[in-house]
From TrEMBL:
InterPro entries with a match to the protein in the record: 4-PPantetheinyl_Trfase_dom, 4-PPantetheinyl_Trfase_dom_sf, ACPS, Ppantetheine-prot_Trfase_dom
A single Gene Ontology CC term: cytoplasm
Residue ranges annotated for the 4'-phosphopantetheinyl transferase domain, each copy included: 5-114
Subcellular location: Cytoplasm
Cited function: Transfers the 4'-phosphopantetheine moiety from coenzyme A to a Ser of acyl-carrier-protein.
Top EC group: transferase
Reaction(s) this enzyme catalyzes, per UniProt: apo-[ACP] + CoA = holo-[ACP] + adenosine 3',5'-bisphosphate + H(+)
Nucleotidyltransferase among keywords: no
Annotated Mg(2+) binding sites: 9, 58
GO biological process: fatty acid biosynthetic process
Protein name: Holo-[acyl-carrier-protein] synthase
Length: 137
């Protein structure tokens, strides 16, 4: 396995809270998928969960060098498996960027406290490269 890229982001939870308060559903639907919105909205302290997902999306965005590449926020989806925790699922232009970069696997770590959220991603290329980034058997 070889590391293709690394991305990290720290977010002030108050900033995301302010965006949600000011722009409501318009902000949420522009940035998060319906599955992400449903997941975060049902949890206590939804703002911290939205903040962690925002940080994760930013970290992936940076690692894939997506700036001005036409990648929508909803093409980078942060989902959760009960048995193994959060993971990244890519679609559309984001998935194309990952494939072009030779990314086979994305490892994600989320953390934070009451005031901040942090995400760290490592993009990997396996020795036997395959293009199944984002596929969830």
């Amino acid at each position: 396995m070889a590391i293709v890229a690394v991305g990290t982001e720290i977010v002030q939870c108050a900033r995301i809270s302010q965006m949600i308060q000011q722009h409501g559903e318009q902000f949420l639907e522009r940035v998060f998928t319906p599955a992400e919105i449903d997941h975060c909205a049902q949890l206590p302290d939804a703002t911290s969960h939205f903040s962690r997902r925002w940080a994760a999306k930013q970290a992936v965005y940076k690692a894939l060098h997506c700036h001005r590449k036409g990648v929508r926020w909803t093409e980078i989806e942060i989902l959760t498996r009960p048995q193994s925790g959060p993971f990244v699922s890519l679609t559309g232009s984001a998935q194309e960027r990952a494939i072009d970069a030779g990314v086979d696997t994305i490892h994600l770590s989320l953390g934070g406290c009451r005031t901040q959220a942090i995400a760290y991603v490592i993009l990997w290329q396996d020795d036997n490269f395959d293009t199944s980034v984002g596929d969830d058997d």
